[in-house]
Design brief:
48% of the residues lie in helices and 9% in strands. It has 380 residues and is α/β, with parallel strands linked by helices. It has a domain at 129-375: P-loop containing nucleotide triphosphate hydrolases (Rossmann fold, 3-Layer(aba) Sandwich), CATH 3.40.50.300. A 7-stranded mixed beta sheet has the order 3-4-2-5-1-6-7, sandwiched between helices. Strand 6 (267-273), helix 14 (276-295) and strand 7 form a beta-alpha-beta unit. Helix 8 packs across helix 18. The longest helix has 27 residues, at 58-84. The protein is globular.
Length: 380
């Protein structure tokens, strides 16, 4: 009993709560209602006393959760940096610097810069003069006679014609009354020293680029020249638009002068004397022409094979023509150039046979040939 009375006396003593504990309790968010003189004050104080210690640990724990997102943000930022790190690595696409490789091709372009405008020039040249070479390795087959008289026949038809004498003998030049030993500028200067071809052109029945004996040494003089096979082709670019036809008389060989002529030509007419030995040269000419087509001028073609110096009174001449037609078919012209003394007399007068004897048979032969070339080329 005494113990119970003591307990009852002790209970009302803690009726007042220190101000500090109240403040702590309020800070913890606990709602405490204290009314002075209330009998439940003890219970309220016990609850506060029991809650006060529990609220203190959450305070440090409450801050870590607030700091946790910051730490997570910090932890998440490094991956962001890792994601950003490939962006600086993006210079790896600098591999497209490979297009700089074309720069390596520039030296090659400098070697032949004219290759780019060449197609346009070729289109323009296609509308310019038609260049025809008269070639045969065999001499004495009427190459010079055919070159001059066919050119004059073209001129009679109203075409602008230029003849080029590439034979060191200068027979074409002499056939127009010009002395090869007295010319100041000849095709030698054009081919060797790159003199404009206009300075070597003389005006007679047709325009003629004259030759001189110096041409005999042209092949040796051009032996060290770069692009020597195209010297004539380059020289013709200056005048190709001024003419409809350019007729080139070649020497009786397949040397550098003839190669220059074939490289610059669109077509080749092959005069062939109606004899066995003359026809033998056709095989060698075909081989040379094939090499020209493969390496220098893929567009050059044989316009036709022209039987010349035909003596219809002999069986051998008739057989020679038959052999030509059997082997070359439609490439053989239907026109025939028969033997006549007029072809020998005309050069003495410094003129073509068309001017020397305009109404004779000899002039008629080349007028017929001109019509055939202008209409159908060969009989094809």
């Amino acid at each position: 009993m005494g113990f119970l009375s003591r307990k009852s006396k002790l209970e009302p003593e803690p009726a007042e709560l220190p101000v500090e504990e109240l403040d702590q309790a309020s800070e913890d968010g606990a709602e405490i209602k204290i009314s002075k003189g209330s009998n439940n004050a003890t219970n309220d104080l016990r609850q506060v006393g029991s809650r006060a210690p529990t609220t203190e640990p959450p305070r440090p724990t409450a801050t870590p959760p607030a700091e946790a997102p910051a730490t997570q943000a910090l932890q998440s930022e490094p991956p962001a940096e890792s994601d950003a790190s490939p962006e600086p690595e993006a210079p790896a696409p600098e591999e497209p610097e490979a297009p700089e490789e074309p720069a390596r091709l520039r030296p090659e372009q400098l070697i032949a810069p004219s290759r780019q405008p060449a197609p346009e020039e070729e289109v323009e040249q296609a509308h310019g003069a038609k260049v025809i070479s008269f070639a045969n390795q065999k001499g004495g087959v009427a190459k010079t006679t055919t070159t001059l008289n066919l050119a004059v026949a073209f001129a009679e038809s109203g075409h602008r014609v230029l003849c080029i004498d590439l034979d060191p003998q200068g027979n074409l030049t002499m056939s127009q009354g010009i002395d090869p030993d007295k010319v100041e500028t000849s095709m030698y200067d054009v081919l060797v020293h790159d003199v404009p071809i206009t300075e070597a052109i003389a005006n007679r029945e047709i325009d003629i680029a004259v030759a001189s004996i110096d041409l005999a040494g042209a092949e040796i003089a051009m032996s060290t020249k770069i692009g020597r096979e195209r010297s004539l082709d380059k020289a013709l670019k200056e005048v190709r638009q001024d003419y409809d036809f350019v007729c080139i008389d070649t020497p009786p060989s397949l040397g550098l002068l003839t190669i220059n002529a074939l490289t610059a030509s669109d077509k080749v007419i092959v005069p062939v004397q109606c004899e066995y030995l003359s026809m033998r040269g056709l095989v060698q000419l075909q081989n040379t022409l094939k090499m020209i087509q493969e390496n220098l001028n893929p567009d050059v073609e044989i316009e036709g094979i022209l039987p010349t110096m035909l003596d219809s009174r002999t069986v051998h001449a008739k057989e020679a023509v038959e052999i030509l037609e059997e082997n070359f078919g439609e490439l053989v012209f239907k026109s025939r150039i028969r033997k006549t003394v007029k072809f020998a007399e005309a050069p003495v007068r410094g003129s073509s046979v068309l001017k020397y004897d305009p109404d004779g048979n000899a002039a008629g032969y080349y007028r017929d040939l001109a019509k055939e070339v202008l209409t159908n080329g060969s009989s094809s």
